[in-house]
Amino acid sequence: MSELRDAGAPVIEGPVFEAVDLRVWYATDRGPVRAVDGVSFSVRRGEILGLVGESGCGKSTLGRGLIGLLPEGSGRDGELRFQGRDMLALTGREQRALRGSDLGMIFQEPLTRLNPLMRISEHFEETLKIHEPGLSKAETEARALAILRVMGIPPTRYRAYPHEFSGGMRQRLMIALALVLRPAFVVADEPTTALDVLVEAQIIRILHDLRSEFDTALLLITHNLGIIAEACDRVAVMYAGEIVEIGDAKAVFSNPKHPYTRELLRSTISLSTTGLNYIDGAPPDLVEPPSGCHFHPRCPDAMAVCAQRHPVDRDHGEGHRAACWATDVADGLQLDASERAPLEREEIAVADEA
Amino acid sequence: MPTKPDIDATPAKERSATVLDLDDLAVHFQLQGNALSRVLGLRGRVVKAVDGVSLSLARGEVLGVVGESGSGKTTLGRALLGLAPTSSGSITYHSADRGRRVVSEMRGAELRELRTDLQMVFQDPHAALNPSMTIEEAVGHPLVIHKIAKGADLKRRVEASLERVGLSPTERFMTKFPSDLSGGQKQRAVIARAIILDPEVLVADEPVSMLDMSVRAKILQLMLDLKNDLGLTYVYITHDLASAKYFCDRIAIMYLGRIVEIGPTEEIFAQPRHPYTKALLAAIPEPDPEKMVPRNLPRGEIPDAADPPLGCSFHPRCPEAVAGCGWESRDLRTLVEEHWTRTDTAYDEEQRVLGDLGRLDKPSTTAALGSGGSQAVRGILDGIRAEDTTEPLWSGVTSIEDSASGVTVHFQPAEPPALRRAGGVDVACVLYPDDGTPAD
Q1: A77: helix, coil or strand?
Q2: Are A262 and A334 in contact (CB under 8 A)?
Q3: pTM of whole model > 0.80?
Q4: Chain B interface mutation, best of A196, A218, A274, highest count of B Cβ atoms under 10 Å
């Protein structure tokens, strides 16, 4: 199979996808919602980048914004390059041509994305006919069966309807449909949220193993830090439209540089949890995000400067970047005593929460 | 109507140690058959959502009921409140005030009245609150329905309840509609509504699974505080073993309507015994980058409860299955199909030789297979066997006989294993025969 390559060390090359100061906003009656507010990152070939954050932090918008699947009344700005091409300069038609064959998407609810009246075979035939019109019927079937085998779906089920599959199988079908076109970059938006824990683990394993079988780069969007830890090479932590920390997953988890990452890790209930921790307050309204650092109203480390000036995105070595004044001060940055003073703020009520 | 003791009073009264007793409880749902079977008066299939569950809930304890979707855990929780009909067996509620009452025999008004003592917190706070009711109306509604309070007294009690769940200053929330509240706040309101009648038992069905990570711990902490302050007993229904580990005193693991393992939380986590419990534990994604993606995962998914596997219902997925687990015809089909995901050259020919695999879909310990002659079929089966000689299905095969067009495979029949004592817990698994260990 040509889309399979020998299992070996992942190929390290230039970025497949690169965003610089990317902004995405939606128009509302109250003004623009700045769902993605100046994020910069890149994804390399064969790499899995995890994107984690709470509901409403803009992670899904970012994922959709990357492949141009935004609704009416939204806008994109900044720089976005896919394999060196400027995505924001492309026309709608050119973008559509890229989607599917070069850019794939895996959604959360597989049942709503499969046509209940079409057999699985017809889904594959339609997909391949649109994007690779030269393919014969036999070639189409061979391609589809090959990818289904990789996903663990037997060929006997090729002519079944979506309702005849279980939830986990449907998600495998979605992944197969996205990968049959061999895209260079795939966005998976909460692909396991609707699944049971054992099936979730199966799907995570499939996604994790993609890189040894395909050359696809993957952006895995999730709210589950455990999934990031198990499946991803690098992780980007998003808060209120910004990436507050990004880096190698091991480095970020073992030595978080941003208080939000640290508190998010602390508030996750895992098997090693011995006490309950949580982050006070709620994520901000993205029409009028807080001044300075967006996290300062909820941050236990906040200083006076955090409410006044936006922190600088700083590299902590090997691409581990974070934007936090407190971390900078701990690393030796000199600030005025008035700027370093603990932030005075209103009491947060118990129930002010997400 | 006697007013309930003030919610600040400590529950120091003499009470029986057990608050709920389930004896061989079964909740079966009749599926609607097709038109023809209705005309002919045939009965449709039956889903055994809860199938023979016995347990007792001690006063003041937190019992976790853990399982995947389709395990029957939600139905079990609903049955406790009389929200799902009991097909057989019984639920007995030992009321602190009124003594022994049999929930499974209650109807109508009696059941409604029972819910002043047993209350439920639902999974989805967005759906559990009426969007056209203010928080004040919603939280006070139980008092109105049960004609316990009205006017100023009603308002006072609503305020007290809201305050208790942290929705204060209460005037900020009383006039709000659910759509004005965040997910965590809505779940607080749902909890306020559940505790306003001062119940004894709270059945919480996935109370935090719809909430963001940063809020889950807050709501769990609130529930723990309420338990201590109000002397509540919880049934905590969840798919999340990690939160159950922190939250529960005792845990029951459910699979396809049955409890497969039950015991004290520490014992379950220190030494999980049932292969399903072990699998659930291994599959939890831990935020620890040193932990790798689990490899030895159970295959497949939770089967159709209307047609559960023969023998132990977990055996088709079990990584530790043995000969006596109840292997059957459908397992053979799965095995052949799995084999076809590994080969692409031999598929067409092998499918012709094996013929219609649909014949294997009827659960049986005798499986007729093949249409291309017994030698050819045996050859394929031997090939599959050679691919993985450790596959436990083969150990359950007692004989393979030649038939006219193919072969007939006979499997060793098996009964579903019963819960048996093993160390400090009870396990339903053939790997743990009754060892006569006394309870710790």
Answers
A1: strand
A2: no
A3: yes
A4: A196
